[in-house]
Amino acid sequence: MNSIQSEIRNFVADNFLFGEDPESLLNDDSFLETGIIDSTGVLELVAFIEDKYSVEVDDDELVPENLDSIDRLINFIESKLKELK
Amino acid sequence: MLLQSLLEQSAHNLPDKIALIVDQRRYTYLEIEQQSNRLARALLQRGLERGDRVAIHLDNTLEAVVSIFAVLKAGGVFVMVNPTTKIDKLTYVLNNCRARILIIPEKKRAIIVEHSDLLPHLKTAVSVGPATSPQETNELQMPRFESWELLQAEFAECMNPPATRTISIDLAALVYTSGSTGNPKGVMLTHLNMTSAARSITTYLMNEPEDIILNVLPLSFDYGLYQLLMAFRVGATLVLEKSFTYPHAVLQRIIDEQVTGFPLVPTMSAILLKMDLSKYDFSKLRYITNTGAALPTEHILTFRKRLPHVQIFSMYGLTECKRVSYLPLDQVDTRTGSVGIAMPDTEVFIVDDAGHRLPPEHVGELVVRGANVMKGYWEAPDRTAERLKPAEIPNEMYLYTGDLFRMDREGYLYFVGRRDDIIKSRGEKVSPKEVENVLFTHERISEAAVVGDPDPVLGQSIRAIVTLMPGQELTEKEVLAYCRKHLEDFMVPQKIEFRDELPKSPNGKVDKKQLTLP
How far, CA to CA in Å, does B445 sit from each of B376, B437, B485? Predict the structure, then answer.
């Protein structure tokens, strides 16, 4: 597991899974469809990403394509980090 | 007039018009009418009797929409259950209304099978979506599971509705709502109640067939449900989304679908106002509405500034009569803090504790009269008697809202507060008792009290104050995890506070006033 993946998994498990088995969440599970994140949850998630990786997330990046699964989050963060370089 | 006629009339007048856009698909009025007719026949074939309750535990989907109208066409009463409701409460609701049929997504099938012993009234469960596990058909198993696709296929040749068995004073729906005593109560609404409310609201919103309404609120929330009923009543188009989780994606829908009407709760407006709205082309947006809790005055003023062409409807209502009042557009800039006047064909007044009408500028309980007022709470005569009280006209009942209001000299209403300790969070009612009851079931928790704190995004945030059994330890996360497991998302507290003891009043009750002191 790469470090971004484990950091994201830990954050999601701590803040949204509330004791459910973190293993049960697959990397491509949709947060929307599994119902684990709501609109205030997304804002928490974005605040975490901005803080942890020192990136800025624009309003128009608040879309399921970027944020709606562990895999998508990793891709999104990696592409944001590349932009910085 | 029957509630299903909202669909039937539009299907007759505008058969090829797009009625519903959901999950990136478009459905005409005729398609929805025919799917509803087929499901209605299948439900009748399964033995649905006039007045039987059918629970619909689905996300905002085509199937949820079709189910609502199918149940009505079959002469049944539909009961929407929030998709995030957990099994304990679902069991309570199903047993409380003795639902005969339940419609669920396939992924919830396993948990229903597991709890079937606790569901003695449930005869049939219809599951929506491709089967995920091998299905053993057991003739003796109750409830019997049926697949949505097969039910639709069964009457594939049938285009017309089954014969009508109901009249407009029959029940159309039970809407479960939180009460101060903990267990949710089923608000009994007749066809007449619901068509009356839908007519009044579409009248003041000036809805027309050209409207395209975007609904992100769950259909289990009456504010969301009525977006469907109102759109279909006028032959408009409803764009149905599952949530407001990704605000940008939702705003993009407004642009892509050229949405004209967008209903909000204060939480959504707080999120919207944090975004840069100037990046979006909202030129087609005609109106936004707000209810669930009063929209903060600053929100209204900011919307007026940032979206000057958009009409803002500030409204007030409660499930027991759907809607009470709206602020006419020409008053928004001068009476910004008001929730307006009685909506068309309803009447309101303010009374003191003895039920006597109060003159303007006095604070008292708001009372409502109208064809939209519920029949009562399902099998709860005592709780019904607290809300429905005899009117001056024999046999008529007034609805006592439990909300304190002030009315100015021109009849405009101003919300003052609630008489009980119900919390309004994200626009939905949260019963502190219901949350406390869950906390009490935790073996390490000794005492619990739940209060609402003012919150700029949620309206009110939920705070639980708990004391632990002697010698026990527990973390905030563990308590939240436990709540999450047993409560709907919107009822889970934002904060858990641990104390050695709870403040008590002289008669030994928890003193919540003291807990809410800043």
Answer: 35, 11, 16
Nearest to A35 among B84, B268, B485 (CB): B84
- Write b or e for each residue in B387-400: b if 16 or more Cβ atoms lie within 10 A of its Cβ, otherwise e: bbeeeeeeeebbbb
CA distance B313 to B340: 9
**Is B25-166 a domain of CATH 3.40.50.980?**
yes
ipTM score of complex = 0.74
pLDDT digits (tens, 9 = 90+) for B431-465: 888 899 899 889 999 889 999 998 888 888 999 99
Mean pLDDT confidence for A64-80: 92
Q: Which of A7-21, B152-166, B187-201, B330-344 has the highest mean pLDDT?
A: B187-201
Choose among B177, B183, B68: nearest CA to B424. Answer: B177
Which of chain B's residues have a Cβ under 8 Å away from the Cβ of A42?
A: 245-247
Task: Report whether pLDDT(B321) > 60.
Answer: yes
Inter-chain residue contact B271 with A39, CB threshold 8 Å? yes
Residue A33 has pLDDT above 80, yes or no: no
Q: Give the residue carrying structure tokens 């005409």.
A: B28
- Residues shown for chain A: 85
pLDDT of residue B297: 83
Q: Which single residue is written with the structure tokens 């939240």?
A: B480
What distance in Å separates residue A15's CA from the closest CA in chain B?
8
Q: Which residues of A touch B271 (CB under 8 A)?
A: 39-40, 43
- Please provide the CATH number assigned to the domain covering B421-514: 3.30.300.30
**DSSP class of residue B189?**
E
**B243 and A41 in contact by Cβ < 8 A?**
no
Exposure of B66 by Cβ count < 10 A (0-12 exposed, 13-18 middle, 19+ buried)? buried
Q: What is the CATH architecture of B192-417?
A: 3-Layer(aba) Sandwich (3.40)
Delimiting residues of CATH 3.30.300.30 domain(s) in chain B: 421-514
Q: Find the CB nearest B242 among A19, A32, A42.
A: A32
Residues A63, B249: C-beta atoms closer than 8 Å:
yes
